[in-house]
Structures are given as C-alpha cells and as structure tokens.
Automatic annotation (TrEMBL):
Its EC number is 3.1.4.-. Residues 1-26 form the signal peptide. Pfam families: PI-PLC-C1. Keywords: Hydrolase, Signal. GO terms for molecular function: hydrolase activity. SUPFAM superfamilies: PLC-like phosphodiesterases. It comes from Streptomyces caeni. InterPro entries: PI-PLC-C1, PLC-like_Pdiesterase_TIM-brl. It comes from the Bacteria. This is Phosphatidylinositol-specific phospholipase C domain-containing protein.
Length: 343
C-alpha cells in the first residue's frame, strides 16, 4: 500500500511538471489581448526633461502634438504654439547625444531621438506614438500623408510596425486582418513602434475644414492599397471619440471604414456611457481610453499611488481597453510598464 501511495505521488508530481512545462511554453499574449499604460503629452518638458526619458519611462504609448509649418515645410511639436517648437525633443541623432542637447525641436528630431534610443534598447517594449495633427495635414503645401510617411520611414526604417505588416499577404483590409486575429504577440513586436494618427483640436474647430486627419489618412490607405503601394504607409488612423456601436458607420464612407482598427476616446464616456466595449475586444480592435484617472472613483491624474494605478489598469482592462492614458509621468517605469490581460 505504501509503495502504491509513493507511486501515485510520483505520478502526480510528474503530471504537475508536465503542466508547468506546458504553461511555460504557452503562446505569448497577442498585442490586442493585453492592456497597457500610456502618457498624455509626453513631449512636454514638465513631464520629462528629455524625450528620451519618456522613452525610458516604460509607458506603452507616448503622445506628440504636431502643427504644420507651411513656410518651413516641416512639422512643429507643441501643445498650443503653432508658430514655434515647445517640447523636450533634442537635436540628438546618436545615442551619445541623448540627454544633453538643445530641446524645442521639430518632429523630425523627435523621430531622431526615437531612432537613437532604439539603438540603446533594440529589444524594447512595443510603443505606440499617438500623433495629434493639431491643424491637420496640408497636402497642397507639401505636408500631407505622403510626406508624413516619407519622414517617418526615413528616420525609423524597419522598426515601424506598419499597416502592411498587419495585412501580410493574406488580408484585403485592416478590418479583415484584425477580426481574423492577425495581430502578432507582444513578444514578436519587441523593438517595434507604431504610429496612431488623430485629428487635432484646432482642425476640428475650424469651420473651413471638414476634411480631417482621420478621413484623409483613411483615404490615403485605401488608395495606396488599390495602387499596390500600401507598404509605404507608416500609420494607423484612429476613430476619435467614444460612441455606441461601430462609430465608423456614421462617420466614414463605406470605402474607408475597413481601414480603421484604432479607436480613441474618453475612458469615463466608454465606461459610464453604457457602451458595449466588448465589441472592440471581440474584434481584436485597439481601444485607447484617455483620461483614465477620471473614471469613478476618480484618482489623481498626475501622481496616484501605485496601488491606485494597478486597480485602474485592472478595471479598464476588464472594460476592454487596449491602452489607458493619463498624466502619470511621475510614476516609475515598473508601474508604467505594467501589462494586464484584456477582458
């Protein structure tokens, strides 16, 4: 009897080891199956002295506000000054120059900083760069989607995860790829960056501009795909603003709806508005919930406790967010790099 009990114990231990081994080799979570933390307006100097420090922060999304500079043929980076640069991006193109050069640079220099930082950390977490085009594109003046793509490509090359990467050689639209679960794992996206484009506050309040960044870049993706040049596109346009159901249906022409798989809106509106956010999760769409601190019960938007951040991440992960954002730049990398299971 004792021998039989010993044999049973050994068999049980072996089964536990096999189970542990199976878990150790379980598939890594999909990029769309996790919830992470981002930093609002990470380019501002009161959040990080240098943009490289924002990259060091552990945050999975960093935001840049961009204005078209028609005369200079470039994009300025600033919150409220369309005539000048006001940011923590440096005139630094190499790793050795980071954390030391003059700031208040244009978008090209911000991208240079990303490229230099990437050289120091080639295996970094996947990072989304949310670009708010404050006044929109100005295609007639040489600052349109093509020029944006060319700038990003010239600065960052193959570290950008692009729409064509999601499509592969299988899917005809981003929506088809996303609904099929084509997003890679987070591990497979290590060392990669993505760009999300949203229309800007000035653009949306301009009575003479009804052709906003989201629609313009959606048209751009559709047309590039039809021409066989989708590989040149560098960004994902986002549907801006929380809404019930599929917000693409009421906002866009049917020809570009399938090119939107990023959604971006106020967290409290999603959570308290009675919206069915499980729709985003089941479709494997990327849902960015902003102003995460304002969801009831509200917590500090600048420096909550670590426990409060963890609880808010868990709460909004259950509400199917892909990324939650706030002004939490004061938090440590161990906090901002947190990853939760979505749903």
């Amino acid at each position: 009897m004792r021998a039989m009990r010993r044999l049973a114990a050994l068999l049980g231990a072996a089964a536990m080891l096999m189970s542990a081994g199976g878990n150790a080799h379980a598939a890594a979570p999909s990029f769309s199956g996790t919830t992470t933390i981002g930093t609002h307006n990470a380019y501002e100097k009161d959040k990080y002295t240098y943009f490289a420090q924002a990259l060091d922060s552990g945050a999975s999304l960093l935001e840049l506000d961009v204005y078209t500079d028609i005369l200079g043929k470039r994009w300025r980076v600033s919150h409220s000054n369309p005539l000048g640069n006001d940011n923590n991006c440096e005139a630094a193109k190499t790793p050795a120059e980071l954390y030391s050069k003059s700031r208040n640079q244009d978008l090209g220099s911000c991208l240079d900083n990303i490229a230099a930082w990437h050289q120091l950390h080639p295996d970094h977490r996947p990072i989304i760069f949310k670009v708010e085009m404050k006044v929109g594109f100005y295609d007639k003046g040489g600052l349109g989607p093509n020029e944006f793509d060319a700038l990003v490509s010239s600065k960052l090359g193959d570290i950008v995860y692009k729409p064509s990467d999601l499509l592969g050689s299988t899917y005809p639209t981003l929506d088809a790829a996303t609904r099929a679960g084509a997003w890679p794992s987070r591990d497979d996206l290590r060392g990669k960056v993505m760009f999300e484009l949203i229309p800007g506050t000035v653009e949306m309040n301009n009575p003479f501009d009804s052709y906003w960044t989201d629609e313009e870049y959606g048209d751009h993706l559709r047309d590039l795909y039809a021409a066989g040049h989708i590989a040149s596109a560098q960004a994902f346009p986002a549907v801006l603003g929380a809404a019930a159901g599929d917000p693409r249906t009421s906002r866009y022409d049917a020809s570009i709806r399938p090119w939107f798989v990023f959604f971006d809106g106020d967290a409290a509106s999603y959570v308290n508005g009675g919206y069915d956010t499980s729709w985003y999760d089941s479709g494997h769409y990327i849902l960015i919930m902003t102003a995460a601190a304002d969801v009831s019960p509200a917590i500090s938007s600048t420096d909550p406790t670590d426990a409060e951040v963890a609880a808010r991440l868990s709460l909004l992960a259950r509400d199917h967010a892909s990324v939650i954002t706030s002004d939490w730049s004061a938090k440590s990398a161990s906090v901002l790099s947190s990853v939760a299971e979505r749903g």
